[in-house]
Design a protein that fits this description.
8 helices; globular; Sieve element occlusion C-terminal domain-containing protein; SEOA
Amino acid sequence: AQENKYVFFYGGTDITWTQRFGSYLDNIKRDSILKQTDTYIEHFNLSRIDPNSESKFWANITNSFLSKIQKHNFKTDSVLKEIQTFLSMKTEKGWALLSKGENVLRLDYNEAMMSVVEGFEIWRNKIVELQGFENAFITIATK
């Protein structure tokens, strides 16, 4: 069942936004279609961890970026661009990242990600139709 395990990391300066986003994720992870498709969702609100842990998290992302930038061509490295985008979100009202294993599937700002999770009832049936949570989420998120 590991192949159907997704993890959301989210945070931001707007505590109301992060709590609302987490509530939507709690509802999604209990949905019957996810159970039918053996899909598991975990989520972590980084704005709820202690400030020291949050600082360490962002320091690790920064160190990863600096380490990678020394070894690669920035213009052609998509991972570097993703890390740079992620670092720019640190002080935003809200942001969310969806991953599957080590792969980042979607990273976006508050309103874009909120609209996808808010509309879950509308697109939940696409999980079966599009052969999985990942395909359905990405299809809706990129509209």
